[in-house]
Write a structure and sequence with these properties.
heterodimer; A: alpha/beta; Rossmann fold; Elongation Factor Tu (Ef-tu), domain 3; Sec63 N-terminal domain-like fold; five-stranded parallel beta sheet; five-stranded antiparallel beta sheet; 12 strands; B: alpha/beta; 3 domains; eight-stranded mixed beta sheet; two-stranded antiparallel ribbon; binds adenosine-5'-triphosphate; binds magnesium ion
């Protein structure tokens, strides 16, 4: 079985059950167009009288909207009483479909969901075939609000006793998403406030900079941020409440005091196992305690076999061959005398640290040593190496060790510290929520100052004065282009071409129209400027095919709409929207007539040239 | 859990959730449809099966639906979402028998024509506007335009200018025709990005961007007479406030709307209209009153149409109501499982 119901069959069922007129929401424009194609292949026909009603109605409407006269879809609409309604159509055709629907002449309209919100034609029945829509590049689930906007078209007040939502599955439908959307409450609105360059310029034009923070505070964004801030604030208040028992003690800021003390203490204790520092006396001795040295220890004499330091041991050690022939391990500091006598031998790496022969020889030598031996005078470096001692000194200077509240401090410290950190963190969050908008404003203002639209004292420069009149997307790119006189002396068609490519933000693959060399080089320049501004403003797509399209329409007043549309594989409605947007951009440029009279004239001419045929037709 | 219980549990879950449950338990689960997944779940070894059931229990505890009045504070947003997720046993329909197709299609038709009597909420909204700003939150097709038109009449009778904005050019044009028809052509003007007709008329239709620009110009000293006499600003479809790209324009418009003018916001799909009203009250010299009408004027019924042509009620209950949770009609459940099975095949593989 097909993964979705056949459109002709669907409409037949709806007719049969008396559920027409219906709006059938499909996933794509193509699906809508294909549904109409399916009707053309079918044998169902409207009764003759209804065909005629539709024909007359359309003929009357064509008086106001000439472009619908020979619309290729008229035959389908007349014969089958169904139509498609999506952004690929011209506004005039969409109006025609809406009017037909309002008058009840159609049984079904196939529409895309993108148009659902705000389009004003209800029906008895709404058919939903999908639970997700393409947003940007990804498919995402319809929101509850969107589903209710779709479903809400069902049931016309005054014309229907009941309305219907019919779900019919297609692959990738999730019934639960739809069910939730139909029965739930719409999502709460969250502010989408963003600070744009034109906003900064226009606010600073009208208000002194020290009023701005107050103005931003009136936004819904700040209203919602404040609510979040309040949640944090109440949390903060409770933290403060918990901090109360940990108020001032012997010293006001005992938490810090104890923290530093504790840190010093810990550091001190940590120092020990780190590289051991020997006392100066010992340090001075060590170079002499090498193998073969005759030394005095508490129990008589001995000969050093090796000096070593075990890992983790604080003191250096020596292995000593005692006069009784045993080998003793002995801390270096217990060496009482270092005699001026060295019995040289080659040591080995393992016990007894020399060859057995050597050991015998050493034993023998020892017995032959004279009873009195000269001691070596050892020079001790008296200067203490401060570093190690510092923390000891600091710790000692703290009042804490002797403070009466010492025990209390020690007990409470970790709790109090955690609370205090929490409170600091919350304070910062609250601060950020309350002042974030203002900081973002300042960031934008700094950039505008960097580019010379604002003075350091946040007044508008001459550039800023006219720059604030450009209140469209990519305003920074456009004002920068105007400043570098990129459009100087250029034809309206070039200006319109560039603006069209800046305005068009749809990346559906287009055609490959050629631009004039002039426009092509200009667009390259624009691209370079846009790239250089990329860190301040997202660069536009700058599609050359749409630039070429606008250039042709404006550059050649003889060009007919149908021929223009034939040059591209863009849908008629998309071409219309492209030119309408270009017109909007041109009219913004036209508002610069005081500072840029030539450019404004060119824009004005562009506007006049755009407005013809379909584009002159209202709307 | 018996096999039957497990099946009925799983069938109620969206496919997405099944995939979550299958993660790490079923090889290549993402290639499977619902029916196939459930089959595989049933054949899992007992140990894995019991872990799965454990997961299932911990995620599908029935939750009471939230009362419609509840305005959830932002901090509790998560929980409010949760409250709205389907409860398996919505209070209303659990005990009652499911509706039937005959029931579903019963009573449809054209109501007898009656003389126009405005609804109480419509009257209320219009009269509130005499003293306060107003937000009207009412379902689609319930008659918000009536409120707008009455308010326009009142303001125009006092020689005030009225500005009506809509988010879409297409809608602006429709309303232009509608209002021209009502008030006469010379009374109505239109200003959009690319169109400008009769711009000095007392009733002006604009896109919201154009009004924002007008307000900017007025703020920087370019005096516009129309703003001096401005008595009413209507923002239709004001849920656009939440539009990621254009929402900011609605905020700017509201912030800079002249203080002497009344604001009227209309929308069908705002989840937090009271919050919006509180905001307006906090920044405007006069309070903002919320008219929140929830009942649809024309009741809406849900149906499911199987691609083979069989129609069944979508839910157990015939009418679609908000906030009461939902339970699919058993027939619809069966047909939809069948659809998934036939489309994605018992072997999965979309
Ligand atoms: N009190 C009433 N009695 C009968 N019909 C009414 C009443 N109020 C409005 N209507 C009719 O209801 C229909 C829908 O009204 P309207 O276009 O104002 O809906 P809406 O609330 O603006 O919906 P949307 O959210 O889709 O814009 C209109 O045809 C209108 O004439
Ligand atoms: Mg409306």
């Amino acid at each position: 079985m097909a993964p979705a119901i056949h459109p002709v069959e669907l409409v037949e069922i709806l007719r049969h059950k008396n559920l027409t007129p219906a709006i059938i929401f499909l996933t794509s424009r193509r699906a809508c167009d294909e549904a109409l194609d399916a009707f053309q292949r079918s044998s169902v026909r409207l009764p003759q009288n209804r065909c005629e009603t539709i024909a007359t109605f359309l003929k009357d409407l064509a008086d106001d909207y000439p472009s619908i006269v020979d619309h290729p879809l008229i035959p389908v609409v007349q014969r089958f009483g169904v139509a498609a309604h999506h952004a690929g159509h011209l506004p005039s055709w969409k109006i025609a479909v809406e009017e037909l629907m309002r008058k009840g002449h159609l049984d079904a309209v196939f529409a895309t969901t993108t148009l659902a919100a705000g389009v004003d034609f209800p029906a008895r029945t709404v058919v939903i075939t999908q639970s997700s829509v393409r947003k940007a590049k990804d498919f995402s689930d319809l929101t509850i609000g969107e589903i209710q906007q779709l479903a809400g078209r069902g049931g016309r007040r005054g014309k229907d006793l009941v309305g219907f939502v019919i779900v019919t599955p297609s692959p990738y439908i999730d019934l639960h998403v739809l069910a939730k959307g139909l029965t739930g409450f719409p999502e709460a609105i969250e502010s989408q406030f963003v600070i744009s360059y034109p906003m900064v310029l226009n606010l600073l034009k009208a208000h002194p900079v020290d009023h701005i923070e107050g103005i931003l505070a009136k936004s819904f964004a700040q209203f919602q941020l404040n609510q979040r801030a309040e949640v944090h604030q109440s949390h903060l208040d409770s933290v403060h409440e918990h901090l109360k028992p940990f108020g001032p003690r012997e010293c006001t800021d005992w938490i810090t005091q104890w923290q530093v003390y504790d840190l010093a203490r810990r550091r001190k204790s940590q120092r020990r196992p780190l590289p051991y520092r020997d006392t100066p006396a010992l340090a001075a001795q060590l170079p002499f305690l090498t193998s073969g040295r005759v030394v005095g220890i508490s129990k008589g004499r001995g000969i050093v076999l090796r000096q070593y330091r075990s890992r983790g041991q604080r003191y250096p050690m020596v292995s000593v061959l005692r006069s009784n022939g045993t080998v003793a391990e002995c801390p270096a500091m217990l060496v009482t005398h270092i005699y001026d006598r060295l019995l040289e031998f080659t040591s080995t790496r393992s016990y007894p640290w020399c060859t057995p022969g050597t050991l015998e020889w050493l034993n023998q030598e020892m017995t032959q040593l004279p009873p009195r031996l000269p001691s070596l005078p050892i020079l001790v470096d008296k200067e203490i190496q401060e570093d190690t001692q510092l923390t000891d000194v600091l710790t000692d200077e703290f009042p804490c060790p002797t403070c009466p509240s010492r025990n209390a401090c020690r007990k409470d410290h970790s709790t109090a510290l955690k609370l205090r950190q929490k409170s600091q963190q919350l304070t910062k969050t609250v601060q950020a929520l309350r002042t974030g908008l203002w900081h973002r404003f300042q960031e934008k203002a700094d950039i505008l100052q960097h580019f010379g639209y604002l003075t350091p004292s946040s007044h508008l420069t001459a550039e800023g004065e006219w720059g604030r009149l450009i209140r469209i997307d990519h305003s920074l790119l456009i004002t920068e282009l105007i400043r570098m006189e990129a459009f100087a002396g250029s034809e309206p068609s070039l200006l319109a071409g560039v603006l069209a490519s800046i305005a068009h933000d749809d990346d559906r693959p287009g055609s490959f129209l050629r631009m004039s060399p002039g426009l092509s080089s200009m667009l390259n320049q624009v691209r370079a400027v846009a790239d250089s501004l990329a860190s301040y403003e997202d660069p536009p797509l700058l599609r050359s095919d749409v630039a070429a399209l606008a250039e042709r329409w404006i550059g050649n007043p003889e060009l007919k709409w149908e021929n223009l549309v034939r040059m591209t594989n863009m849908a008629e409605g998309d071409v219309y929207r492209l030119l309408a947007r270009t017109l909007e951009f041109l009219s913004q440029i036209q508002s610069l007539r005081e500072t840029h009279p030539e450019l404004a004239d060119s824009a004005k001419m562009g506007i006049t040239l755009i407005r013809r045929e379909v584009l002159e037709e209202l709307p | 859990m018996t096999d039957e219980e497990l099946i009925s549990f799983l069938e109620d879950l969206p496919l997405r959730r099944l995939h979550v449950l299958a993660r790490g338990r079923v090889h290549r689960h993402f290639r499977m449809g619902k029916q196939r997944l459930i089959d595989v779940f049933l054949k899992l070894p007992p140990q894995i099966r019991s872990a799965l059931e454990e997961d299932l229990r911990s995620t599908t505890i029935p939750i009471k639906a939230s009362p419609p009045e509840a305005q959830q504070p932002r901090s509790q947003k998560k929980s409010s979402r949760q409250l709205q997720t389907p409860s398996r046993h919505p209070g209303k329909s659990s005990g009652e028998p499911s509706t039937t197709v005959a029931d579903l299609l019963e009573g449809l038709g054209v109501p007898p024509s009656t003389t126009f009597v405005p609804d109480p909420w419509q009257v209320d909204a219009v009269s509130q506007l005499a003293t306060t700003d107003v937000i009207v939150s009412a379902p689609t097709g319930s008659g918000k335009t009536y409120v707008a038109v009455e308010a326009m009449k009142q303001a125009m009778a006092k020689d005030s200018t009225v500005i009506y904005t809509s988010p879409l050019k297409a809608l602006s044009n429709t309303k232009y025709m509608e209002f021209s028809h009502l008030f006469g052509h010379e009374q109505v003007g239109i200003l959009t990005g690319d169109r400008r007709d009769n711009a000095q008329a007392p009733l002006l239709i604009m896109t919201t961007e154009i009004l924002r620009n007008l307000l900017y110009d007025a703020a920087s000293g370019e005096i516009d007479l129309r703003l001096n006499t401005l008595g009413l600003v209507i923002l239709d479809e004001s849920q656009f406030l939440a539009d990621p790209e254009r929402g900011v324009v609605w905020e700017e418009t509201i912030i800079f709307c002249p203080t002497q003018a009344r604001l009227l916001l209309l929308s069908a799909s705002i989840g937090n209209p009271q919050e919006l009203a509180d905001w307006l009250t906090s920044i405007r010299p006069i309070p903002c009153h919320l008219i929140h009408h929830r009942r649809r004027s024309v009741p809406l019924r849900g149906a499911y149409l199987h691609p083979a042509g069989k129609l069944s009620p979508l839910f157990k209950s015939r009418d679609i109501t908000q906030g009461a949770g939902y339970a699919f009609h058993p027939e619809t459940k069966r047909l939809f499982s069948k659809y998934e099975l036939e489309t994605f095949g018992p072997r999965g593989g979309r």
